[in-house]
Design goal:
The chain is of the alpha/beta class and 138 residues long. The protein is built from two helices and eight strands. The longest helix has 12 residues.
Length: 138
């Protein structure tokens, strides 16, 4: 098996890029239902793409250094409210949270101010059973 990276890197070198997330995937049971849910609440179109044994619905991507991700349907991925939480950056989280409730989601954490003018966050459970966060500056 060929090595991924043959370079020797000093142990004291910082390995994390300034933009920490590189990609995210939100598991689904019903990709059609999940795609419709996210398109309704965010007001954007997701692009369907096959990826090996997976099928993805990819969120819009603004190019580097911005990060994107996808909804994923794969036999080894299951929705959950426990574990890591993906936060989606939105212009204003209040209407997105209202749309989530109107389209089958549940509010888990209401709009909450962060300290020091860091913005606001909330969390909801999507139609697949995932805990997903929202963040907005205002």
């Amino acid at each position: 098996m060929a090595a991924c990276n043959r370079h020797v890197i000093p142990e004291d070198r910082v390995m994390l890029n300034p933009t920490v997330p590189a990609w995210f995937e939100i598991p689904t049971v019903d990709l059609d239902r999940a795609q419709a849910f996210y398109e309704h609440i965010l007001g954007v179109a997701l692009k369907r793409e096959p990826m090996g044994e997976s099928e993805l619905a990819v969120f819009p991507y603004g190019g580097r250094p911005h990060v994107s991700g996808a909804l994923i349907r794969h036999a080894e991925c299951s929705p959950a409210v426990q574990g890591s939480i993906v936060y989606l950056s939105v212009e204003d989280l209040r209407p997105v949270l209202q749309r989530a409730q109107a389209h089958g989601g549940d509010t888990l954490v209401p709009c909450t101010a962060l300290p020091g003018d860091m913005g606001y966050f909330a969390q909801f459970r999507d139609t697949e059973g995932n805990r997903v966060g929202l963040w907005s500056a205002a």
